[in-house]
Specification:
- The protein is α+β, with helices and mostly antiparallel strands and about 650 residues long.
- About 20% of the residues lie in helices and about 30% in strands.
- The protein is built from 11 helices and 34 strands.
- The strands form 8 sheets. The protein has an 8-stranded parallel β-barrel with strand order 9-10-11-12-13-14-15-16, surrounded by 4 helices.
- Helix 5 links the parallel strand 11 and strand 12.
- Helix 3 crosses helix 4 (about 190-200) and helix 4 packs across helix 11 (about 550-560).
- The radius of gyration is 27 Å and the shape is globular.
Length: about 650
């Protein structure tokens, strides 16, 4: 089965079916006239009840080279009926789409019939890809490791109405970290986000459902705090799953960035809602703190084997709608699901947080490709990919903080991202960059020296850039890539040891240290450097308009993406030495009528998003101004000289 899927081209021309949409217009007109449901329109058909004849033309143009390739075909659509129009376009020496060079084409489809015409434009790409059970993922014959992030569709103050320019700033920052892939969680996202992935060269797994015909627990009072609620898509699944799945594929199938269709996320939780007698022998990845009775076999719950039947039905729908891409699923409980048949019909098996199963399950299922569809941030999870060629990659949960799934009020979002809601990087972003890229990387962070714990993480022991008031001693963490790290404390060299669990270099030093300097050297050459000192009080307020790199802006223009609808101003509090200052200040935005939103990334800040005032968070915040209202914006931090930005 998998060999058959591997031999297919991975959507060689993502866009070949565009003409069908325009053809539907002819069918709709002729059929509606015949049935008398709307007035006859002579520009659509010569006479009700007669067939319509015409010609379709596809023009494929490269914005980069200007070369255009054309193919024509004639058609006849019977009155009230449909007709398929098949065309084949051969392109000598095509410029291929990939993550390294996301070359795009413009496909224009023109229909002419009975004196009328219709035209449809879209952006497409040409590429082949494959998932191999032994060698992972490849694009155009070149092997790649998928270094992915999962994304929700919101962006803080914008909700889910996120302007393309805001997504662009976020995606470029994730690419700089080394990310080359996105898993859309767990529903169709904004069209502009897919178009940006096309333009920037980000691979996409597009995911349809978070639950099927039975509801999963919704933790509205806290994770595994009972009783849960059950409000979700399950109510609509029986009547709407096929229509919604087909519509999602039809809307997105021509994006070259999409490399797989996922039919579900973690539908196989133990007792949530499906049950099996084998549950008593196994533990799922969301079982922590559950009441004992919730981890026992409950025969009143739906049988877990029902999932296999549904999965086969969904897979068949996907393959009928798009036979060029593999079908996958993000399994939460593969210990059981691999024994009930749930994974048997998949072209690509996705495991959530089950890296320990990779070696054994690769031996159990040697013909099925494997991927980490959702993963934690640990070094061990990354090594499970880097050291096993048969694992296609991993997808971190998540790339960016998002609203919802919060610990408890006033926190109203998840802080699992590499970026804050405001689009600013966290320390974990720098660590991930040292793993995922060859780029020179140097970043310092500190935390109180953990005591009495065998294991520590950024969750149990958060890191920061400030150690004022820390107890003796402190741990200094060095995130270094592209060379050998060298650390000095107040000018004196300090030996470093590599933390095998954390994936970084570290040292334990007195809390009285005033200045740390990390240099990453390639031989005798310093290729990256970072300084960290006690931050002073804010004396300067800086506000800079963010501009996309010229190459990214050009690619967006070629892809027809409007990235100038919102102006983004990055604001920082600085001390006398030009470093991020200690302490936070309220910031007020004054405009000449422009519509403004402010985001600081603080998930516990409940200031209304309609307010024109917000406190900084870690010395930063972002101001967003609607471009069509552009004029003058004054940004004022309390007690500091205001900054006027001419937009």
């Amino acid at each position: 089965m998998v060999q058959r899927r591997r031999d297919r081209p991975g959507g060689v021309l993502a866009g070949a079916r565009s003409g069908a949409r325009a053809a539907d217009r002819i069918h709709d007109c002729v059929g509606s006239c015949r049935r008398g449901r709307r007035a006859h329109r002579s520009d659509h058909c010569q006479q009700c009840g007669r067939s319509s004849r015409g010609r379709v033309r596809h023009e494929l143009r490269s914005p980069a080279s200007g070369r255009t390739h054309i193919v024509d075909a004639v058609f006849e659509v019977p009155a009230g009926g449909t007709a398929g129009i098949g065309t084949e376009l051969r392109i000598p020496e095509p410029q291929l789409w990939s993550d390294a060079d996301p070359h795009l084409y413009q496909l224009t489809t023109t229909l002419n019939w009975n004196g009328a015409s219709a035209e449809y434009d879209e952006i497409v790409g040409i590429r082949t890809f494959a998932f191999d059970p032994d060698h992972g993922f490849s694009i155009n014959g070149e092997e790649r490791t998928l270094k992915g992030v999962c994304l929700h569709e919101d962006a803080g103050c914008f909700g889910v109405a996120v302007p393309p320019s805001v997504w662009l700033r976020r995606l470029l920052t994730l690419k700089e970290m080394g990310a080359n892939a996105v898993r859309m969680a767990h529903n169709p996202h904004d069209r502009a986000l897919y178009a940006l992935c096309d333009a920037l060269g980000l691979f996409v797994i597009d995911e349809a459902f978070d639950e099927w015909e039975n509801p999963k627990n919704k933790w509205w009072q806290g994770h595994n705090v009972y009783p849960p609620r059950h409000e979700g898509y399950a109510t609509h699944f029986p009547a709407w799953h096929e229509r919604d799945l087909r519509d999602q594929i039809a809307a997105h199938r021509n994006h070259p960035s999409i490399i797989a269709w996922s039919i579900g996320n973690e539908v196989d939780y133990p007792n949530d809602p499906y049950a099996s007698v084998l549950f008593e022998q196994m533990t799922g990845n969301n079982d922590a703190d559950k009441p004992a009775q919730e981890r026992m076999y409950d025969p009143t719950r739906p049988d877990v084997r029902r999932l296999t039947t549904i999965a086969r039905r969904l897979s068949a729908i996907v393959r009928e709608a798009d036979p060029t891409r593999p079908v996958t699923l993000a399994a939460a409980f593969p210990e059981l699901s691999s024994r009930t048949g749930l994974l048997d019909d998949l072209d690509l098996i996705g495991y959530n947080y089950k890296e320990r199963l990779y070696p054994d399950d690769h031996r159990r299922f040697p013909d099925q490709p494997l991927i980490g569809s959702e993963n934690g941030h640990g070094y061990a999870q990354w090594r499970a990919v880097a050291e096993n060629d048969f694992v296609a990659g991993q997808f971190l949960w998540t790339g960016i903080d998002y609203l919802g799934e919060a610990r408890g009020w006033p926190v109203h979002g998840s802080d699992a991202g590499m970026l804050t809601l405001a689009g600013f990087t966290k320390s974990e972003w720098h660590l991930r960059r040292s793993w995922w890229t060859q780029a020179p990387t140097a970043h310092l962070a500190v935390r109180a020296q953990p005591a009495g714990l065998d294991r520590k993480s950024f969750w149990t022991h958060p890191v920061s850039r400030n150690w004022d008031g820390a107890e003796e001693p402190i741990e200094v963490l060095c995130f270094a890539g592209g060379g050998a790290p060298h650390l000095t404390c107040d000018g004196s060299p300090v030996p470093l040891s590599f933390d095998e669990e954390g994936g970084f270099w570290s040292a334990t030093v007195p809390a009285s240290t005033a200045m740390f300097v990390l240099e990453v050297r390639d031989g005798d050459v310093v290729v990256a450097r970072d300084e960290l000192a006690h931050a002073g009080r804010p004396v300067v307020f800086a506000a800079d308009v963010w501009h996309p790199p010229a190459d990214a802006a050009r690619r967006c223009r070629d892809a027809g993406i409007a990235i100038d609808s919102v102006i983004q101003i990055e604001c920082r509090l600085l001390d006398a030495q030009g470093r991020l200052a200690a302490g936070e200040l309220p910031v007020t935005v004054v405009t000449d009528g422009a519509r403004v939103s402010i985001e600081n990334g603080d998930l516990a800040d409940i200031t209304p998003y309609t307010s024109t005032m917000r406190r900084t968070f870690d010395g930063r915040l972002a101001v967003f101004v609607r471009a069509e209202d552009a004029g003058t914006v004054q940004v004022c931090a309390e007690g500091l000289p205001p900054v006027t930005v001419q937009l």
